[in-house]
Amino acid sequence: MIVYKILLAIHVCACLLLILTVLIQGGRGAGLMVFGGGGDLINTPSGTTFIKKFTGVLAGVFALTSLFLTLLSTRSSMTSVVRRAPPGSVPVRAPADPASNPGTAEQAPSAPAQQAPGSKAK
Asked: Counting CB atoms within 10 angstroms of each CB, which of 9, 29, 105, 111 has the fewest?
């Protein structure tokens, strides 16, 4: 369980740093290409190589921590129900058999009489 909490802290830090590094980097004008503008901005550098590599590392850390957090969360929920029960649980009594106590049993409605095929009802 402590591994999950440490991994979650690393994941949150990677998320926040990834958001900051993406926002720090200058845009290359790719959004303007939809409307036909910004063609001369394609070859301009959008940041230093350090920022680009750091963003790539953070993206990798984000992906790996997401994968491991998913695996750890599904593994922890796969415990047996028997193990979760308290050791001194009281057994549940079965309901009384209605055949042994005919006074309290409800009477089932009688089924309509079946007619033989080919006979006409009057």
From this structure: 111
